[in-house]
Amino acid sequence: NDWQKVGAMAGNVINYVCDQSGIVAVTSKERTPGVWELETTKLDTVGAEELWKVAVGFDPTHAQVAHTKDGFWFVTAPSPIHKDYPIIMLSRDGKNWSWRGNRTTDFMAVAQGVGATVAVGADGTIMVSHDMGLSWRDVRTTTKRTFRDVCVSKDGTFGIAVGDGGTIYYTKSSIDYWTRSTYELPVDLTSCTIDETDGRFHVDFAGKDGLFYVAKDRSLGQINLVTSTSFENIETLATLPTGEVLAGGGNYQSPDMICEDGFLIIDGQKPWNMWLTTLISLLLLGFWGYTIRL
Fold it and tell me: CA-CA distance, 265 to 56, in Å (whole number)?
């Protein structure tokens, strides 16, 4: 019932943000043909205070602005080129901005190590950030296949990206420089994980038809096929603190189970576990054969 004017805005008010810092008005105006100015102003009963403004090359009339609890500013706006892929801007201070403008890439996975973040996706896309996602650098690859997963070592110096057609890219000495592996496995790879427990450095990855692979060094000099009990697609891998590798997928079927919607497999990474399982299997096979003969 009680309204009061707190100040006149220099541009068109397109929306506002109301958060812990108060009420912030978002305005826009065309500065020159094809260049607009987006501005935020904090409002209170005393007056108005400019927070930040930025010049953009698109009409921000329908832009939305958000301010997170972590202090980040997000600006999203419809792309004038492709309606299904909006322009996204991110900044912590309103001065330095990272953009995802007019990009039609579908990203599939992101991973983080010390000082490095890597995102991968369609069309052989690998992008690296060293400032927690504020800015990104494209890594040149020679493939157009989709990367489905990416893993980064704890120290941020090693990374591996896996994807369709058995495609594998990895880093040798720096997370900024990626190399295509000489191995091209005969299966679509969907997931990866790095085991760095107890001084080990094992790279596990898996894919369709329940196939598991492991490499035991950073150079991926030798990639071995690992026997598993899965016959369906593996969708995700994770290394537990104990060094065990957990795999998850869907629609696993066996003679003992009529259709389970999901399954989990744990690889113990302990040689005696594998030999014990093999011994038990041989004993059961022998007993089964002996029974048939009787």
Answer: 50
Distance, first Cα to last Cα, the chain: 94
For residues 118 and 82, which has the higher predicted lDDT (pLDDT)?
A: 118
Sheet-wide strand order for 262-267: 234-239, 245-250, 262-267
**Residue 203, Cβ neighbours under 10 Å: how many?**
24
- pTM (predicted TM-score): 0.55
Looking at residue 26, its amino acid is: V
* Nearest CA-CA partner of 150 in 213, 217, 214, 237: 237
Q: Are 136 and 88 in contact (CB under 8 A)?
A: no
Structure tokens at 169: 């890219």
Q: How far apart are alpha carbons 98 and 197 in whole angstroms?
A: 35
pLDDT tens for 43-79 read 766 667 788 888 887 788 888 888 877 788 888 877 6
What is the rounded distance in angstroms from the CA atom of residue 76 to the CA atom of residue 119? 20
Could you give the CA distance from residue 188 to residue 208 in angstroms, rounded to a whole number?
6
pLDDT of residue 169: 95
**Cβ–Cβ under 8 Å, residues 165 and 184:** yes
List beta partners, residue 171. Answer: 178
pLDDT the model gives residue 170: 94
